[in-house]
Amino acid sequence: MGRAAGESVGVRSILADPAVGSVVAVALVMMVGVGLVLPVLPLYARSFGVGYGGVGILIGAYGLARLGADLAAGLVVDRIGERRAAAVGLASLAVFALATGLAPSFPVAVACWAAAGVGSAVVFAALYSHLLRAVPGERMARTLSIFYGSFNAGVIAGGFLGGVLAHHLGLAAPLLFDAGLAALAAILCLRLLPALASPTAVGPVGARGLRGLGGLLRTPGLLTVAAANLAYMWMVAAVFDTLVPLFAQDELGMSTVGIGVVFAVALAAEFAVLYPAGAAADRHGRRAVLIPALAALAAATCVLGLASTPLVFGVLIALLGIASGVAGVPPGAMLADVAVPGQAGASVGVFRFFGDLGFTLGPLAAGFASSAVGFGAAFVLASVPTAVALALVARAPETMRPPPA
Description:
Helix content: over 70%
Number of domains: 1
Number of helices: 19
Structural class: mainly alpha
CATH superfamily: MFS general substrate transporter like domains
Number of strands: 0
Oligomer: single chain
CATH class: Mainly Alpha
Distance between the termini: 6 Å
CATH architecture: Up-down Bundle
Radius of gyration: 20 Å
Strand content: under 5%
CATH topology: Growth Hormone, Chain: A
């Protein structure tokens, strides 16, 4: 009976819950700003006269800073609450995105973009923790698919606009507009996001801070979930954020507007499959969805470097978007399945730490690989973490618990 009731819950019912609808609204505004920046950030780095390695350094600095802040961000969320933590993180992101766009030199741009990454770590820890504590497990994958859908809707809206802004106002313009949208998201967060009750049992991690994370890592299934997130975020940063815009411009001769269109195509395809993937993961289990999706994601990544025209590239990007949309939903739902009660923030911190490890190393590896062995081989190398995650998930047991009677 619990399963039937869970399956009858649709998008409108999920969004009608203020604990979910407010998070989606904040994330949507924030991700429009992110979408403005993503298509042109590698080109902004190149405007300082750096090579492909420098591009990887700028993109990787954001992920490296998030990586260093993730574990502490989760503990901060457990201490001060999701609403205040998200607002502080968004305000920080606004300030340092503005500073990045106004940077007089490449080192200053790298430092400011890294500081923006710290703010991002706090925001995402807060939003994920809020959903983990507020949403029942039997609808978690569908809720996360809507949450991720707000990412895609925002990035789709921002992606094309970012290319247009860069074309007409310069490569720094998307960063300046991103700062304004992050400030708006901080205001919305304070006004809309409901405050959840403090956890009744923080547990050993909350009591001992970072020293207690070793015990959390021994939670069954958590490392497998973290490895899947590492592989997925590696793909996002190495392929979408680094190789795709560089390959499109340098090998296919596409303009910034054309690159923005390519990003919109990929994210539209991803958006279309998010909710069906979440529904399938809630109904059939997380592994049944994640295993074939990871296999398709690895294959789609490998063939991107074979594109010889913008049209072929756009088709391959759409296929990659479908695979990434299906593969992106189950890891977060698996985290909710295995998270330690009373330690939502710390569990999210571990999950985000591994994801940002991939987000940091991915563009560095992609930037140097494209210089050393060319784009074709760089795309193939970027698929290796996905293949490793596929092997780990295939060996792991199902994490989804039976719904309540």
